[in-house]
Amino acid sequence: MENICQSSRPPFVHALSMIEGKWKLKIIYELACEPVLRYGQLKRNIPEITHKMLSAQLKELEKNDMIIRTEYHQVPPKVEYSLSVKGESFVPILVELCEWGKKITTEEAK
Predict the structure, then answer these.
(1) Which of 1, 24, 38, 49 gives a 20 to 30 Å CA spacing to 7?
(2) What is the spatial distance between Cα 66 and Cα 28, in angstroms, rounded to a whole number?
(3) Which region, left, alpha or beta, applies to residue 84 given φ > 0 means left and ψ of -120 to 50 means alpha?
(4) How far apart are CA 36 and CA 22, in angstroms?
(5) What's the CA gap between 55 and 79, in Å, rounded?
(6) Burial of 53 (C-beta count, 10 Å sphere; 0-12/13-18/19+)
(7) Where is the HTH hxlR-type domain (predicted)?
């Protein structure tokens, strides 16, 4: 196995920069569960997040090409969010994280 820790910028650090923070994983999770969500739906699905923080996190995820923001020019304005190809490539990791969560929850209950 290649030693991933020996590069000048370990791949882990780069990958973590895409998803770091309290909310990005939750946003990606919501978009993995429902492929297209509007801002208000995301806010309802993550009630603990403030509007300012949700907006900032969505902008960062879009900047990192993890999500796609689709704006419809209509009245009232409509904006939808979905996972990009890069974001979708993260879903198997998210599934593994969920499986790990189930496993440790079961073990802790014993």
Answers:
(1) 24
(2) 8
(3) beta
(4) 21
(5) 12
(6) middle
(7) 5-109
* Residue that the structure tokens 């370990």 belong to: 10
Whole-angstrom distance, CA of residue 34 vs CA of residue 42: 10
| Angstrom distance (rounded) from CA 56 to CA 75 | 24
Residue-level pLDDT at 39: 95
Structure letter (DSSP) for residue 106: H
How far is residue 99's CA from residue 76's CA, in Å, rounded to a whole number? 40
pLDDT tens-digit profile, the chain (110 residues)? 456 566 666 778 888 888 998 999 999 999 999 999 999 999 999 999 999 999 999 999 999 999 999 999 998 889 999 999 999 999 999 999 999 999 998 877 77
- What Rg, from alpha-carbon coordinates, does the chain have? 16
Classify 81 as helix, strand or coil. Answer: strand
